[in-house]
Every structure is written in C-alpha cells, then in structure tokens.
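Hi P.,

Sorry for the delay on this. The queue was packed all week, but I finally got your sequence through. Input first:
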Amino acid sequence: MHNAVNDLDVVFKALADPFRRRLLMLLSDSQYFCQSSGRTVHGICVRDLSRHLDAPQSTVSRHLAILSGSGLVSHDRDRTWHYYSVNPARLTETVDWLNRLMTADANQTPTRGAALGSPSP
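Then the structure:
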C-alpha cells in the first residue's frame, strides 16, 4: 500500500543519519560554484561534496542515493556530470505534515489521552 505516511517513513529514515543531514545542509544553497567544471551551476557534484565532507565519493554517492530515493534530493545531468540539489517541494510536504501534527496535538482534548491509557491529571 502506497500512502503519504509510508512516504514520510522513507523521508524520516533518510533524515535519521547525521551524514545525510550534513549533505542536505550543503545542498541547501541555491547555487554552487562547481570546481570541476569551473562554472556556476544549480547543484553540486559528488566530487565537490566529497571534498567538503572529507569522505570518499562512494560514501557520498551511497547517501545521495538514499536521499534521492526519499525525494529529498534531485539531480540534473550535464554531459557526464551530475549536480545534486535539495528538492524544496519534498521538504515543504514534510514540514506541512509536521505542522499538521503540531496543530493536532495542540487541539487534543484531555479525554482523548485518557482513552489511550494515559493517566488522568
């Protein structure tokens, strides 16, 4: 079964790893100067990410694949180079879900918590 909650499970699993969160922070800028091609592009290549994170390209690629699979990261291709960037639409969906959760929690009545087995105040 495919639904929004299952999709969010994939997002939160991707966000659970500190290395992937660091990757997202690097990718959160709108433009980068790609050292490899010497021009300004939308996104950043694995080679440059590897340098910034002081990690092997294979490690960076593996984590980018997980982030891409969750929809948090997208990429563009220019000849042989792949440029990765944050997918703002997917981040917005995730934040919107968290905001709905916070709103639902704020509107929760005490009797509902008691019905779930929580001790009464």
